[in-house]
Amino acid sequence: MSQSIFVSTLPRRLVSVSVLGMILLMTACSKPAPPEEPVRAVKVMTVGFAGYQAETEYAAEVRPRLESRLGFRVAGKIVRRQAEIGQKVQAGQVLAEIDPKDYRLSAEAAQAQVNAAKTNRDLAQADFNRFKTLKEQNFISGAELDRREAAVLSAQAQLEQAQSQLAVQGNQAGYAKLVADRPGVVTAIEAEPGQVVVAGAPVVRLAMDGPRDVLFAVPEDKLVGVSMGTKVTVRVWSSQAILHGKVREIASSADPLTRTFAVKVALDEGTAPPLGSTVFATPKIKMIADTAVIKLPTSALRQDGNSSAVWVLDPETMTVKSRSVQVLTAEGNLAVIGGGLKPGDKVVSTGVHVLAPGQKVTEYKDKVTQRAEAGRGAP
Length: 379
Fold this sequence. Notes:
This protein is of the alpha+beta class. It folds into four domains: 44-51 and 290-374, conserved putative lor/sdh protein from methanococcus maripaludis s2 fold (Beta Barrel); 58-65 and 210-283, Beta Barrel (Elongation Factor Tu (Ef-tu), domain 3), CATH 2.40.30; 72-98 and 176-209, CATH 2.40.50.100; 100-175, Helix hairpin bin (Helix Hairpins, Orthogonal Bundle), CATH 1.10.287.470. It has four helices and 24 strands. It has helices spanning 2-29, 101-136, 142-174, 367-377; strands spanning 40-42, 44-46, 49-50, 58-64, 67-70, 76-81, 88-89, 94-98, 177-179, 184-189, 196-197, 204-208, 212-219, 231-236, 242-250, 260-267, 278-283, 293-297, 302-304, 307-314, 319-331, 334-339, 346-348, 361-363. Strands 3-18-22-21-20-19 form a six-stranded antiparallel beta sheet, with no helix packed on it. β14 (231-236) and β15 (242-250) form a beta hairpin.
């Protein structure tokens, strides 16, 4: 009897074990459920229109409209320098001299060649005159007279060549003196007596008399508001005098070191301060001066393709969505937004690079804000 009971219960146990094994096997083969996306706490700011100071003052310097680096047209050793920094010079005034001995000797040699060529020409002319008389008396042939005429023409050509060479050597002797081609002010000396210079090497820097410019550098983000003809107010640092000018030149490329663009403002010659004076230039930017703008911290911006974008919070669903915005310029650590947002929009201000479209978020509130809200809600 006991043996039959044991036999009948054994299959039930086997069936239970096999069913349990199948359940465990199915549980192990099924994929685990994906973890729920965390709800991130983000700082949110409500945007609104703000005033924009479109005018920016730049430190600038008064520079000459034309400034030349004058150098000798021939090589040589500088023996004398008459120019000094800050000296007012007139056109034709000697600024420096190099040793002219070699050029004088070359000019004398060229003069000797001219004299020799002139003598040969005169001798050939005399021979031609004699042979011409003989030809009239039929003592020589016409061919012989032609040869004498050719000799005269050749001697004349040699004389002209020698005269041209003498003129070149005479000019080089004259180039031993460096003279000012226009009136101006000496702003720099780049070579001293005793120094051997090559032709064209700068010796004196001369600021030509005439109109003056105000030179200042503009960052790339501010260049959008500066254009040719923009009116500029110039304030002189020493006297606080106010001058007016217009932008006449904007650099086509940025400085490789400072990454700024050089801007030149034309000033009237009669009212311009002395060269090198420190002034402050304020361009009259009209492009966005009267436009209602929204300011955001730069931490709220992110790059979305080729445009700038921000995360906008939907208060009903507490999710974020991306929105493209138009950035006009920067004002310190704030970005000036010209389009894409409207007053009342809630924008995520920090942590924008860890969010995704449609992600649920909560508004981060510091302890002070939490206490204030708790105090208002208390009875």
